[in-house]
Amino acid sequence: MTPDQYCQNKAIQSGSSFYYSFLYLPTEKRRAITALYAFCREVDDVVDECTDTSVARIKLAWWRQEISSVFNATQEHRPAHPVAKALLATIKEIDLTAEQLYKVIDGMEMDLDYNRYTDFNTLKLYCHHVAGVVGELSAKIFGYRNDKTLIYAHNLGLAFQLTNIIRDIGEDARRGRIYLPQDELVRFGVSDDDILNSCETNGFRQLMEFQIERAEEYYDKAFAALPAEDRKNQLPGLIMAAIYRTLLEEIKNGGCQVMRQRVSLTPIRKLWIGWKTWVRG
Question: pTM of the entire structure?
Answer without folding.
Answer: 0.92
